[in-house]
Amino acid sequence: MTETETKKSLSFEDFRAEVLNDYKIAITSRECSLLGRREVLTGKAKFGIFGDGKEVPQLAMAKAFKNGDFRSGYYRDQTFMMAIGQLTIQQFFAGLYGHSDLEHDPMSAGRQMGGHFATHSLDENGNWKNLTQQKNSSADISPTAGQMPRLLGLAQASKVYRNITGVQNKTNFSINGNEVAWGTIGNASTSEGLFFETINAAGVLQVPMVMSVWDDDYGISVHARYQTTKENISEILKGFQRDENAKGYEIITVKGWDYPELVSAYERASEIARNEHVPVLIHVYQLTQPQGHSTSGSHERYKNADRLSWEAEYDCVAQMRKWMLENNMATAEDLDAIDEQAKKDVLEGKKAAWSAYVNPIKEEQKELIALLNNVALQSDNKVFIEKYTADLSSIKEPIRKDLLITARKVLRMVVKENGKNALSQWVTAYTEKIQPKFSSHLYSQSDKNVYSVKEVKPQYDENAEDADGRMVIRNNFDAIFSKYPETLIFGEDCGNIGDVNQGLEGMQDKYGDFRVCDAGIREATILGQGIGMAMRGLRPIAEIQYLDYLLYAIQIMSDDLATLQYRTAGRQKAPLIIRTRGHRLEGIWHSGSPMGMIINAIRGIHVLVPRNMTKAAGFYNTLLETDEPALVIECLNGYRLKEKMPTNLGEFKTPIGVVETIKEGSDITLVSYGSTLRVVEQAAKELLEAGIDAEIIDIQSLLPFDINHDIVKSVAKTNRLLVIDEDVPGGASAFILQNILDEQNAYKHLDSKPETLTAKAHRPSYGTDGDYFSKPSAEDIYEKVYSIMSEAKPNEYPELY
């Protein structure tokens, strides 16, 4: 018997009980929104953004949502989360207060503001749970439409699990690809390019995705007439409607206050997406936003009297109540009783959440006050310390900031007194205890992090012949795809021609177009495909054709992928590998090296910069044994350069965070990475002719950076340092120098000023001359090193100019 038939066979009393329970969830959610707003306005919470006005369609969506399904949503889906049993009243308020304990705020341990929801895909050790036995929500982000690219990947994973041989046994992630990815978005956010890019991609890929648009006619205060052509998203997307001649979407429109029609619409959408793997768009219109956009303002400022009157009448909860009364589902007394009980439950849940949040801090407050009183007794600054203590004692609802500010200010007063040690120890211990609540899990803390994989060197036959670098990377991918059936690669020109540099030549023919596939020119959703599939247990490699094109996807990388483990306190992960190529091609749009921009935008993702294809292949092999995301930037001018072909393809591993000294020297340490190293090596040969012996260090990875602090060991030997980079001035070179000087304390060993040599501030001009005059050349490096040596030894190295 199908689920639809089961529902049809429900008795009236069973159906009535289900409807009453739905109403209870809706009214409970509404009360949470109303009381939550008051908590913000009284100062207990910093900011509030709530789901009031969207309760009833979310109930309908929850009914169609099955175990194994994933949500990728909009920050107003609290009713849905309550309906699938993943959000309690107390958890709702714990999130609003920013409770930094995952047991109290399982959505993010206080790292995201309220309204941002997630379930736990991982256990406390970072191991996958069985995702098919639970209802799943990918962790929300605030950037509008930022949830869309990931949604595409979550849906595509079902397509992969249904069609690729070798992954069907991964039953903790999928059961024959029957899972649906459910997206939600506000009507105004459909104006974002990410929405349209994702809608188009999902239609092309034909993935099981149900996309709900909550349409209340406004985007904050801006009416739909300024947002959407024809003020109607389903109207302008009609061309996506599938028919007998062409694949596309099923498009459904339904009023947001019509409970029975909403239930029917979502049941139909679920069946289409789940069984046929066809994307569905549900335009839920005539919705309201009873309290306006957020606690930062009131909607009475921008809605006229007629609109406010209409919203009061067509509020979805009010309309549901009206429908229940008209259809004898309940009496007014029954519903009033539910309303009253919901208010009590919400108030009690709010009080419990606040007590759980503030009471531990009050205990810490008492502990510090006792310590300060003892310190004051033996201090010359007793009067001033007592004033600080009294001020701290007067705070009835302290936060941890209050405690540390007081303790650190008092510490200044007793720095030369006997009380210093006890207070200093308290501050240190307290910070060590509390800081991880706010800073843990930027990177994986499991036993599968990048540091868990040991180096395995490439092996070679005695008579190994030289081969093009592209052949090394291609043959290694062949070994990877054979070894790991869950790996797949996709991007512009990846499939049919085997990528623009033939690093995937023949792979599509061998492994099929589900595992080695072309993608449209849409970098953000290529990243999104990878994020979503990685969140569902696959090991995708998302290819961005050139490093410059990464800028199209940098927002998704920064706001979503890089923060995923952090914003879930280690309870979700997406070990996506991003493959691209860059450096030294002659052209303004294909030869940029915006590394400073990248590394400072994507903390949380490892950034690997191999100097050749063997090193790059080793990075891929390493990453596939870890659970962390990474960006691998292959040298664009290295595919035709000759390298030896390793015999242990797929097995050798380049260590991450470890530098390599590629030339020993005694006079100066030269630090660089990627294609620029070949220019550095040429300059070093010429410097030897002048009697200058340079040591050359290949960084290999920018994030993480030199975890063994090997560069400072080199500087201790040479006493001079030059960082060479083809990024703009102050870009990656500043990051590198800061690490060497501040983190490794190399300044202690310097006899000359540490310097950087970078590209010019502009984009590289076209052609060979453009490259020469835009980026560091061998002559630039030679002369910069020579000038450093000239300053130190002017008689031995007279000035060139």
TrEMBL record:
It comes from Flavobacterium arundinis. Signal peptide: none annotated. CDD domains: TPP_E1_PDC_ADC_BCADC. Its cofactor is thiamine diphosphate. E1 component of the 2-oxoglutarate dehydrogenase (OGDH) complex which catalyzes the decarboxylation of 2-oxoglutarate, the first step in the conversion of 2-oxoglutarate to succinyl-CoA and CO(2). Keywords: Oxidoreductase, Thiamine pyrophosphate. Residues 467-641 form the Transketolase-like pyrimidine-binding domain. It holds the Pfam family Transket_pyr. This is 3-methyl-2-oxobutanoate dehydrogenase (2-methylpropanoyl-transferring). InterPro entries: DH_E1, THDP-binding, Transketo_C/PFOR_II, Transketolase-like_Pyr-bd, Transketolase_C. Its EC number is 1.2.4.4. It comes from the Bacteria.
